[in-house]
Specification:
- The protein has twelve helices and nine strands.
- By secondary structure, the chain is of the alpha/beta class.
- The strands form two sheets. Strands 1, 2, 3, 4, 7, 8 and 9 form a seven-stranded mixed β-sheet that branches. A two-stranded parallel ribbon has the order 5-6.
- Helix 2 crosses helix 10 and helix 4 runs parallel beside helix 12.
- The longest helix is centred in the C-terminal third of the chain and has 22 residues.
- The mean pLDDT is about 90.
């Protein structure tokens, strides 16, 4: 089919879109924080679009396998990508990508900024962040830091933490957030920095210790935890943002339809309540736009690339 014929066909389909089930690729395993965000949004958007949005978990290689699959999908609005901050770090982490993070997709909109929380095993000796920093620097060869794998949110937060305190710790990578958290709960590792969507329930139950949140203000769901700045680590801010994308070339009318459904989902009381339970909230409507997502993606690439390159971390 020629490009002109394909374009005409896509525009014609846009007039009646959507007419069938939409697949949302989540480039991480089921049950993780990004999967949770995706399922909440998909259900609400499906109600608006009057079509089911199903989640396809395509994990591996720090989210690049799923992102690559989405980039190669037909630009007809029936395959989407819901990705997190990893979309902005992959260009620096991976020397060879099957897609271009900024040019292989049509942005639809930002969804949420999920705070990170620095946590430790329940019996870690430090009672607050000040004591933690002193302990870590005095015992850097003994302290272990868990993460969910190369390019994961916990990996990025850990790199920023070690850079901020100018201390390298023994890093223990896992194949996903679940196994990393299980070993933290089992006291096999000492520290972890991960999304509030993954740590809140364990903190509330007293199974792990929390030292600081990576936002400017405290979390409404966990008000007892100070910010990293309050606790003694100035200018330590990082959030795991999530965005929704379509393959490059998806017609603007389809992008507009999806964007409208996304904005409705972000105002959905049930979505807002569930996000609040997880220690986050939907972005403001002004940020839930294609333009805002594209600008944020570029800014995040500019932020993380030098940090990653300085750390000397990369994958083939």
């Amino acid at each position: 089919m020629s490009a002109a014929v394909l374009s005409t066909s896509l525009l014609a389909n846009a007039q009646t879109y959507p007419e069938k089930t939409i697949t949302v690729i989540v480039p991480f395993a089921a049950g993780g924080p990004t999967d949770t965000v995706a399922r909440l949004i998909a259900q609400s958007m499906g109600n608006t679009l009057k079509q089911q949005l199903i989640i396809e978990n395509a994990g591996g290689a720090g989210g690049t396998i799923g992102a690559g699959r989405a980039a190669k999908a037909a630009p007809d609005g029936y395959t989407l990508l819901l990705h997190h901050i990893g979309q902005s770090t992959a260009p620096a982490l991976y020397q060879k990508l099957s897609y271009d993070a900024t040019n292989s997709f049509e942005p639809i909109g930002l969804i949420t900024d999920v705070p990170m929380i620095l946590v430790a095993r329940e019996d870690f000796p430090a009672k607050d962040l000040k004591e933690l920093l002193a302990y870590v620097k005095a015992n850097k060869d003994k302290v272990t830091y868990a993460n969910a794998g190369l390019g994961s949110a916990s990996h990025l937060c850990g790199m920023l933490f070690m850079t901020s305190i100018e201390t390298d710790l023994t890093t223990v990578p896992y194949k996903g957030t679940g196994p990393a958290m299980n070993d933290l709960l089992g006291k096999q590792v000492d520290l972890m920095c991960d999304q509030s969507t993954n740590t809140s329930s364990q903190i509330k139950s007293g199974k792990i210790k929390a030292y600081g949140v990576t936002t400017k203000t405290r979390l409404g769901s966990l008000p007892q935890i100070p910010t990293m700045n309050e606790a003694g680590l100035p200018a330590f801010e990082v959030a795991v943002w999530h965005g929704l994308y379509a393959p490059k070339g998806t017609p603007k009318p389809i992008i507009d339809t999806l964007n409208k459904a996304l904005k409705i989902a972000l105002k959905d009381p049930s979505v807002k309540q569930r996000f609040a339970d997880l220690g986050t909230e939907p972005v403001a409507e002004s940020r839930a736009t294609p333009e805002a997502l594209q600008a944020h993606l570029k800014a995040e690439i500019d932020k993380w690339s030098p940090i990653i390159k300085k750390a000397g971390v990369y994958a083939d």
